[in-house]
Sequence to fold (134 residues):
Amino acid sequence: MALELKKKCVIASELVEMCNLLSVELGFSVSESKKIIKRLCSEQALSHLDFLKDLNFENIDIKTDLDSADNERLNLLFSNIGKTDCESMLLLVEAFRQNMLESKKRYEECFKNKSRLYIAFGIFGGFAVTLVLI
Fold:
């Protein structure tokens, strides 16, 4: 369970980084937004974002290990990318980035609190098994 929470933290961090890279590319490049997203697939900093490699812009249905609300926001972001002017896309990316920063903070707090609990349960469970075996 702690590993699942840690993975959520990593994915949220990488989504924030994706937004940063996307904003830079959209702001300084005249390339089509879909080409920019395809270029992001090769970024090492986004290695946990597997959906970028198989992204179908015709049928956006992205599922990650994040909560369903975060997945819904992610789907909304990618369904609107390339459909508006550059300035509106930058605002959309920034709004998503702010949401992901809040989600990342929430996931990290949850991980910090629950990981201690999981470790304590593991230790006490080990003691209980030891006592039963003795």
